[in-house]
Amino acid sequence: MMADEVLLLEGKDFYDRQRPRLGIYFFDSLISDIESLKIYAGIHSVHFGFHRMLSRRFPFAIYYNLSGSTAEVVAVLDMRRDPAWTKERLTD
Length: 92
Fold this sequence. Notes:
The chain is of the alpha+beta class.
């Protein structure tokens, strides 16, 4: 399992503890945001060398690269974290 998959599962668990089934809504929302890159890839601003799309419903950001017409998701990160942590995660 990749580190970003772990972060998504931790986010799901966090939201499940807040309210039943909210974690499933969180996970589905993030997947929907990622799938929207099929249409919107490349329109987002660049941060730390990657395009960054903010989730529509939760405080998470999806960082990705463009390779031709393909968006490659690099990380899905919690935006409530220290920006130094985000930068470190993206430059590893």
